[in-house]
Specification:
Layout lengths: L1 H4 L8 E3 L5 H9 E2 L3 E2 L4 E4 L2 E4 L2 E6 L16 E4 L14 E4 L24 E3 L3 H16 L5 E8 L22 E3 L2 H8 L7 E8 L7
Parallel strand pairs: 1-6, 7-8, 8-9, 10-12
Antiparallel strand pairs: 2-3, 4-5, 5-6, 11-12
Helix pairs in contact: 3-4
GO biological process, one term: regulation of translation
Pfam families: Gp_dh_C (PF02800), Gp_dh_N (PF00044)
Keywords: Apoptosis, Cytoplasm, Cytoskeleton, Glycolysis, NAD, Nucleus, Oxidoreductase, S-nitrosylation, Transferase, Translation regulation
Length: 213
């Protein structure tokens, strides 16, 4: 989001965050433990987030079909929460999803992005893990061949990871846990059809501010 405000090519007009109230959004946008202080103005005004005097509509919907993106004149939606796999455009022209899909084609930059048709209204970019794993897996398979493979991924704890302490998860010791997850290997098999069913692995979310290994 910060990068977008430093670009003249992108205008952010709306954000949907069902988990965080507006006052908290203002604070965490100003002060980030990883990226430091935001060098600009951030405030809440008329139930909108105002960054550098640019008003942004805030939605807090858990059901994406309830979001009226057209009310905010949104042309393109970026779904990056990892929660919604199927998105209703809500009046927008295009949706980009950064989560592996169960039945829709996925496009990875440097591998299959050239197959992306501009007529597609929903574009799925898979996940960060898939984008990291698929390119080297393809190179190894093209040059040597992969009969089967196992991967281990380590990355920072993310919001969708559920704690055993739920529903009091805010009081749990998440930072002292290693939370397992998996799914990227299936996505790689869909991006590289020759490797479908040949890869398996484990994914560990650990106490790190930002890392993928």
């Amino acid at each position: 989001t910060r990068a977008a405000f430093n670009s003249s090519k992108v205008d952010i007009v709306a954000i949907n965050d069902p988990l965080t109230d507006l006052s908290c959004i203002v604070y965490i946008f100003q002060y980030d433990s990883m990226y430091g202080k935001f060098h600009g103005t951030v405030k809440a005004e008329n139930r909108k987030l105002v960054i550098n005097e640019n008003p942004i509509s805030i939605f807090q919907e858990r059901d994406p079909t309830n979001i009226k993106w057209n009310d905010a004149d949104a042309e393109c939606i970026v779904e990056s929460t990892g929660v919604f796999i199927i998105m209703d455009k809500g009046g927008s022209k295009r949706v980009i999803i950064s989560t592996p899909s169960t039945d829709n084609p996925m496009f990875v930059i440097g591998m299959s992005h050239e197959k992306c048709d501009n007529s597609l209204k929903t574009v799925i970019n898979a996940s960060c893990t898939t984008n990291c794993l698929a390119p080297p897996a393809k190179d190894i398979h093209d040059n040597f061949g992969i009969m089967e493979g196992i991967m281990t991924i380590v990355h920072a704890i993310t919001a969708p990871r559920k704690l055993w302490t739920a529903p009091l998860e805010s009081h749990g010791m998440a930072a002292q846990s290693t939370i397992p997850a998996s799914g990227a290997t299936k996505a790689v098999g869909k991006v590289i059809s020759e490797l479908n069913g040949k890869l398996t692995g484990m994914d560990f979310c650990v106490l790190m501010p930002m890392c993928w290994l």
